[in-house]
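Limitations

Structures in this collection are predictions, not experimental determinations, and the ligand pose is part of the prediction. Treat each record accordingly. The example that follows, with GMT as the small molecule, is included so readers can see exactly what is and is not provided: the inputs are given verbatim, and the output is the predicted complex.
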Amino acid sequence: MKIAIVCYPTFGGSGVVATELGIALTEHGHEVHFITYKQPVRLELISHHIHYHEVSVPDYPLFHFQPYELALSSKLVNVVKQHQIDLLHVHYAIPHAYAGYMAKKMLECEGISIPMVTTLHGTDITLVGSHPYYKPAVTFSINRSDVVTSVSQSLKDDTNRLFDITNEIIVVPNFIDVAKHVNPYTECQRDLMAEPHERIITHISNLRPVKRVPDVIEIFDRINKKIPSRLLIVGEGPDKKACEELCESKGIENKVAFLGNSNEVNKILCFSDLFLLPSEKESFGLAALEAMACGVPVISSNTGGLPEVNEHGISGYLSDIGNVAEMADHAISILSSDEKLAQFKANAKEVSKKFDTKMIVPQYEAVYERALHLV
Ligand code: GMT
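Predicted complex:
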């Protein structure tokens, strides 16, 4: 099959999932064409079957907002015709499902029928998409997609609650190549990040308010008072400066390292003893799954799809949003005993296997077959 994948190329779960899916599909013999405005961060163009087409939006002074959707749908039309694409798979409803639908309609005028699969990722529904400014267009493009998938049952329920959806939504969970998440380092390299007696705690996100990074720091501060620890914060985002200031005001700035964005989170996670994800909203929590695949237990909030990923009392613990006291207590209970920590680490790795690429990618292939039969 020749599949065109539209996604956001930047750091963020939806782009990572779309990129990993594209790579996995080529390993199953498909040809994949990524269509976006920048080469996706985790994409290395090492296979004959992977192509990348850049969407350029020329700057025109008349426009206060440059029309990206228009450029994207025109690019889709051209790529579909040039490469005889069989199917469009758009990740993140805004504006990709809308642009994809326009491309589909333009192609129809030229006698080309092509199915479109839309994958909902979370903030396109729970944060941005349900805003009245966007809601009619998002509802329309979800309902006009040939097949719609969501990355968790929770996101499916949210979509049906927040929008007037007439299409069936199929849950296809996010996934991870478990085999890739083996520790490439030795204990001596761990020593570069922390003293031997210290535990290493990690948080990875886009440091936006929805991630509640100040809660991460508050939980860490409570842990560190009982168990000497280091906090590694990976990612860039609007809350970074305020969080650095919060660390200074608590006098823990020497214990917290802000590492910026990383393409190789497994090289950081392999040293970690615990992962914190106290988000306000989280449709799935891909970062938590990546941590678990590296054998890192997760302390998270119980919002959205997190309970579908992090198993309470097994791969970590879940608490109500903002309950930093309980999250810190759970963390301390795991970290205070080497035996208990080893057990949670093993459990986390085991639970992550339910989301292995091998199990999930065939589900997307079944979705594609279904979409192809609909047009
Ligand atoms: O978490 C973010 O803010 C980024 C966002 C994205 O679009 O990349 O993540 C969403 O999609 C991920 C991949 O499906 C999910 O793992 C995240 O839980 C989801 N984020 C939210 O729902 C807040």
